[in-house]
Design a protein that fits this description.
Oligomer: single chain
Low-confidence stretches: 1-28, 129-138, 280-285, 298-306
Structural class: mainly beta
CATH superfamily of the largest domain: Immunoglobulins
Number of strands: 19
Number of helices: 2
Strand content: 35-45%
CATH topology of the largest domain: Immunoglobulin-like
Order of helices and strands: EEEHEEEEEEEEEEEEEEHEE
CATH architecture of the largest domain: Sandwich
Shape: elongated
Number of domains: 2
Length: 306
């Protein structure tokens, strides 16, 4: 793991200290910097983010410390209090980092397999940054810039955005006894610690489908949890028969377009791939229709990634 994210092993004497705290209870030291947490878009923070780690850097980007708000503290107060000496700082907030999360050369790797919670990142909006070009300020900033002045407390609200996304695929029109295997290729292997931009090469995710029934129709379905990606053209969807025969392949961007969605919506995605009857002159992708689920709540509770 990158040195700057390890717990403090050897640090030169510093003129500051940090203290994470509950809303109630004894204060181990006076705090002059406070942040409370929320989700971008007004979502419910509770139930989405259970722990938060704050990376603290000086104004030049040199690592100082990492503070963690545990689940017990988070239940009392959705925020953190710190004591910082006067000076310039850069702060990075990550939610739901767990034992499978690693950081190497300031690139974060978190497969979020099985029952792991999805990662969240803040700030999604940095109130101290004004974009002269008028670009979308909902995009994550590399870090939160803070200047602490002597004798004056500081407080602010930071909003988290998800660093993972879920893609649920339903396959219909195949023999009910056939449970195909699905693949996603071109998924980013990691995210930059500063800014959560895709980084670190790509990986292929695979998933065995499960049989589910929706609106009286039987589907083979699978759900993938992936690192966020910037370009759906770089991500491909493949469906294989149990014997490994390729049944379907397409870029995710093409599927989204056929379903009437934006090229890369900032939401979880659910799509229906319906295999149509094949004749002698047509086959493969030409006979697969792409639609959105018609039932309430597109995603399903099947397992995540192998």
């Amino acid at each position: 793991m990158d040195r700057f994210l390890k717990c403090i092993l050897v640090l030169a004497p510093l003129a500051w200290s940090l203290a994470c705290c509950k809303a109630d209870g004894p204060e181990p030291s006076p705090r002059n910097v406070w942040f409370d947490f929320g989700l971008t878009g007004g979502g419910r923070f509770e139930g989405s983010v259970s722990t938060v780690e704050v990376g603290v850097f000086d104004g030049e980007g040199n690592y100082l410390a990492t503070e963690r708000v545990g689940a017990e503290d988070m239940a009392d107060r959705k925020g953190i209090g710190m004591k910082l000496a006067p000076g310039d700082y850069r702060l990075v907030f990550w939610g739901n980092m767990n034992g499978s999360t690693t950081v190497t050369d300031r690139v974060l790797y978190a497969p979020a397999e099985g029952d792991a919670d999805p990662l969240f990142y803040a700030p999604s909006v940095n109130p101290n940054t004004t974009r002269a070009d008028g670009s979308d300020t909902s995009v994550a900033e590399p870090y939160y810039e803070l200047t602490v002045t002597g004798g004056k407390d500081f407080s602010d609200h930071v909003e988290f955005r998800t660093a993972h996304r879920e893609l649920t695929l339903y396959v219909g029109g195949l023999d009910k006894t056939v449970l195909p295997k699905m693949y996603l290729t071109g998924i980013p292997a990691g995210l930059e610690y500063f800014g959560a931009a895709p980084h670190g090469g790509t990986v292929t995710l695979s998933r065995l489908t499960e049989s589910v029934e929706r609106d009286g129709v039987r589907y083979a379905a699978a759900m993938f949890r992936t690192m966020r990606f910037d370009n759906a053209e770089d991500v491909a969807v493949r469906v294989d028969a149990p014997d490994g025969t390729e049944l379907f392949r397409s870029s995710l961007a093409d599927l989204l377009g056929k379903a009437g969605l934006a090229d890369n919506p900032e939401t979880d995605i659910a799509l229906v791939l319906n295999f149509l009857p094949t004749d002698d002159e047509q086959g493969g992708n030409a006979n697969v229709s792409i639609t959105l689920p018609t039932w309430e709540g597109g995603a399903i509770g099947v397992g995540i990634n192998e």
